[in-house]
Amino acid sequence: MRVLAAMSGGVDSAVAAARAVEAGHDVVGVHLALSRMPGTLRTGSRGCCTIEDSMDAQRVANMIGIPYYVWDFSERFKLDVVDDFIAEYSAGRTPNPCLRCNEKIKFAALLEKAMALGFDAVCTGHYASIMTDADGNRELHRAAAWAKDQSYVLGVLTAEQLAHAMFPLGATPSKAEVRAEAAARGFTVASKPDSHDICFIPDGDTRGWLAEHVGTAPGDIVERSGKVVGSHEGATAYTVGQRRGLGITVPAPDGRPRFVLEVKPKENTVVVGPKEALDIAELAGSRISWAGLPPKDAAAEFACEVQIRAHADPVPATAFLRDGELVIRPQTPINGVATGQSAVVYVGTRVLGQCTIDRTVSAVPVEA
């Protein structure tokens, strides 16, 4: 097959590209230039698309003997990831930009260009596996190394995208083995730190970045009853589950701490309450996708597991489609769910699909 290897400049994508070559594929490496500030260099281990990363990727491509290109996707990245991030926070939601990047950039924009150029598949260094059922339908599954599993951030992939995706690291037992393999191949990225945080906020100051791009305005901090208990300087600085730095001036009658339960940008208020009110008994979203074949009758309640963060534990649940929403009811309440997050649904190790959370129902009534 003709394979386009997405090379971020990290150790995972380097080994994935090398394995694709050894598997006999005709491989071309490509690094995606996503930053609108191309002179920016890596700060510590933050980011994944700097000039330094591009040079690291090129060195690996030269060593494994494949052509290498840099493609400028900065405009598409700004529109589909950065602007989406700003819009979601402006709406009081908590987005996952890495998941959106996989959906809109690596497996939409990149894949579209790859197909137009005659490639058969896009190869990445994600830790996830693709399997086929008895009828030959492709399915997305967790990686062998659950500690490194990245199937959650790939939950937005569709059946068509899975048909042209390749994850050579899916069956690898550990990240340590990948690093050892990279060292044995002589790759200088073998000991390179993993990237973390949000790549377009390289200093890690998300609060400051949002204040600059979304703006701030003072408003009220209220209880679920509507009672004002404090004030804030900007609602976007608050996240669901937050306890510290709330600016509450009226103590709770029982003396217990309050937590952020909801951010309401239209009213410019932050809603707080007791910790137990963070427990969510139901969540639902309308931005739904299926990673392969959907359930035969999604309107009928089916058993599954739901995961609401990349590194969260899956929780047994039931789910069903109703009025254009995927409604998910965990067997035990999930703590601290925010709208804008993705709820990825699993059946065993298989990723069935996902929805972007639009609403939640607390397990604790407002009167409590």
Automatic annotation (TrEMBL):
ATP binds at A6, M7, S8, G9, G10, V11, D12, S13, L32, G125. Residues 209-273 form the tRNA-specific 2-thiouridylase MnmA-like central domain. The record marks H126, Q341 as: Interaction with tRNA. SUPFAM superfamilies: Adenine nucleotide alpha hydrolases-like. One of its GO terms (molecular function) is tRNA binding. This is tRNA-specific 2-thiouridylase MnmA. Residues 148-150 are annotated as: Interaction with tRNA. InterPro entries: MnmA-like, MnmA-like_C, MnmA-like_central, MnmA-like_central_sf, Rossmann-like_a/b/a_fold. GO terms for biological process: tRNA wobble position uridine thiolation. The active site is at C101, C199. GO terms for cellular component: cytoplasm. Keywords: ATP-binding, Cytoplasm, Disulfide bond, Nucleotide-binding, RNA-binding, Transferase, tRNA processing, tRNA-binding. PANTHER family: MITOCHONDRIAL TRNA-SPECIFIC 2-THIOURIDYLASE 1, TRNA 5-METHYLAMINOMETHYL-2-THIOURIDYLATE -METHYLTRANSFERASE. Catalyzes the 2-thiolation of uridine at the wobble position (U34) of tRNA, leading to the formation of s(2)U34. It is an enzyme of class 2 (transferase). Its EC number is 2.8.1.13. It catalyses: S-sulfanyl-L-cysteinyl-[protein] + uridine(34) in tRNA + AH2 + ATP = 2-thiouridine(34) in tRNA + L-cysteinyl-[protein] + A + AMP + diphosphate + H(+).
